[in-house]
């Protein structure tokens, strides 16, 4: 390729500062260095974590940055400046396969990830981006709101050559997170009763995971009743709007389920909802999983909730080891074992990215795909 070993100038959505719309800029993307890969991004989803960083994150050291972390594309060049045109998958959660976390089957964390010590900034200090003469941070190590991006090879997975990138890109965060929270973290059992709090893409994916795991009853909980029909498509059997009841939602669910659900998943990222999800579980064996991303709130519960036998745990990327699991999830989609098309409500171009953000803020979409291939 003519671009191998050279700086590429391309379009990207730059978040110059928090709480301000992104700006479409021409940025410079440096060639990949040793153990790095430069990718031409074809499609990317807009995830709530992008909004979290833009509107809720409190650390200005995380700006300016190019957001986006649900992307898929093709390899443009690799470190030492070779090139192989293969379909590839940027991963916000790396897998080096060598650190103590990667070698442990109990976790999907990795010591080589940006998240090892920079959760507040949500980016590493190393970047291959620049704009207007200054470095631009790569959000979550990925930055898929750019026509090109550069990643360490530990954060890239090769996927099937026939995979439709405008759909499988969604496996980069939200869908894998919710689905895996049910099947990997909660370990939902056949015949069990589940409750999912929050029916965005993550919550709907959790519903799908509960169904695929064999749950007999899946209660969808959300204050937006317009989402109930969509939840039914993914397998929800019961629907509850907390605002329609005068008593706490945990009491409502306890009455519906003879004492509480076997498994609950909080897919909102709200401390109060996390507590409600735990309290909605049956004593003795109930399991509640924190799935919604947040680091700006504390959460708490009465000790008796855990003393009575309930379990409270968290889930990052659904417990999936990224490089190992994403190619398999792509194949699961291609074989019809998991749904992706049903999550997509809008498709837009990069210059409409702020419109996509506004849609998500107002609950007007499930997932918007940003098409960068044109």
UniProtKB/TrEMBL annotation:
Keywords: Metal-binding, Oxidoreductase, Zinc. One of its GO terms (biological process) is formaldehyde catabolic process. SUPFAM superfamilies: GroES-like, NAD(P)-binding Rossmann-fold domains. It comes from the Eukaryota. One of its GO terms (molecular function) is zinc ion binding. Residues 34-160 form the Alcohol dehydrogenase-like N-terminal domain. It holds the Pfam family ADH_N. Its cofactor is Zn(2+). InterPro entries: ADH-like_C, ADH-like_N, GroES-like_sf, NAD(P)-bd_dom_sf. One of its GO terms (cellular component) is cytosol. Residues 201-328 form the Alcohol dehydrogenase-like C-terminal domain. The keyword Oxidoreductase applies. This is Enoyl reductase (ER) domain-containing protein. It comes from Electrophorus electricus (Electric eel).
């Amino acid at each position: 390729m003519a671009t191998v070993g050279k700086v590429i100038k391309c379009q990207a959505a730059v978040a110059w500062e928090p709480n301000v719309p992104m700006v479409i800029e021409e940025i410079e993307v440096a060639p990949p260095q040793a153990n790095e890969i430069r990718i031409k991004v074809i499609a990317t989803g807009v995830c709530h974590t992008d909004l979290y960083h833009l509107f809720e994150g409190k650390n200005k050291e995380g700006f300016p940055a190019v957001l986006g972390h649900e992307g898929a594309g093709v390899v443009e060049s690799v470190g030492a400046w070779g090139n192989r045109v293969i379909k590839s998958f940027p991963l916000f959660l790396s897998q080096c396969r060598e650190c103590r976390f990667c070698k442990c089957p109990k976790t999907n964390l990795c010591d080589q990830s940006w998240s090892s010590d920079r959760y507040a900034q949500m980016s590493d200090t190393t970047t291959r981006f620049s704009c207007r003469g200054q470095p631009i941070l790569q959000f979550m190590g990925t930055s898929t709101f750019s026509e090109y991006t550069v990643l360490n090879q530990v954060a890239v997975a090769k996927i099937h050559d026939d995979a439709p990138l405008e759909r499988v890109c969604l496996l980069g965060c939200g869908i894998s997170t919710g689905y895996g929270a049910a099947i990997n973290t909660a370990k939902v059992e056949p015949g069990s009763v589940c409750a999912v709090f929050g029916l965005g893409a993550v919550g709907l994916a959790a519903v799908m995971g509960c169904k695929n795991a064999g749950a007999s009853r899946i209660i969808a909980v959300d204050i937006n009743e317009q989402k109930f029909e969509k939840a039914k498509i993914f397998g929800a059997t019961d629907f509850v709007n907390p605002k329609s009841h005068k008593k706490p939602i945990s009491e409502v669910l306890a009455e519906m389920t003879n004492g509480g659900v076997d498994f609950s998943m909080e897919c909102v990222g709200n401390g109060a909802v996390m507590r409600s999800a735990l309290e909605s579980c049956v004593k003795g064996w109930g399991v509640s999983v924190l799935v919604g991303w947040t680091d700006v709130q504390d959460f708490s519960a009465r000790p008796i909730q855990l003393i009575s036998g309930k379990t409270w745990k968290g889930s990052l990327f659904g417990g999936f080891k990224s490089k190992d699991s994403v190619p398999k999830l792509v194949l699961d989609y291609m074989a019809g074992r998991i749904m992706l098309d049903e999550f997509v409500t809008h498709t837009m171009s990069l210059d409409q990215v702020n419109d996509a953000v506004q849609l998500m803020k107002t609950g007007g979409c499930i997932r918007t795909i940003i098409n960068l291939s044109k």
